[in-house]
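re: ur question from yesterday

yeah so i grabbed the chain u mentioned. its 163 aa long if i counted rite. heres the sequnce exactly as i have it in my notes:
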Amino acid sequence: MKDRIKQAVVTRNGKQFIDVDLGLKLWDKNTAPNNNAKISQKQTPRPRPPVTRQPADPAAAALLDVVMTTPDDDIPDRYDSEARKVHYQAELAKLQTLKERGEMVLAADVKQEAARLARQVRDLLLMIPSRNAAKVATMQDQETIRQLLQDEIESALRGLAHA
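ran it thru and got these structure tokens back, copy pasting raw so excuse formatting
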């Protein structure tokens, strides 16, 4: 048991003390999950169980692939993992708050709204000729025709502004 936290022992005034923070880190790092298991100097990695089911979500599948292919030596200790988890939970909470305040919107919603407005512009502009063909056919003055088309376009744009 001493070997697990040996580096945390500090000697002061001839007495030995344990650096609690370092001792806890070393204990978690050097203690197997099974309390009855003995720690050998060089542990062989446990074989990982085969994954039989892939998640439906592509992001989850990619994450599972990363986790399953990460060598045991590259897996961060518990404290690093917890710090990362807390960090990402805080990031998610921040994004949720911004969304609730209306300071952030989904890109898909913006694209959908832009497409709706583009269709509305197209429809309003395409209606101008059919609505005014008979009027224009009877007009002789170029300036009157230009003014009619100008008024129709401005009317369509005002309709969009109020939509």
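noticed a couple things. Residues 107 and 125 are 27 Å apart (CA to CA). also The chain has three domains: 1-33, 56-104, 107-161.
anyway ttyl
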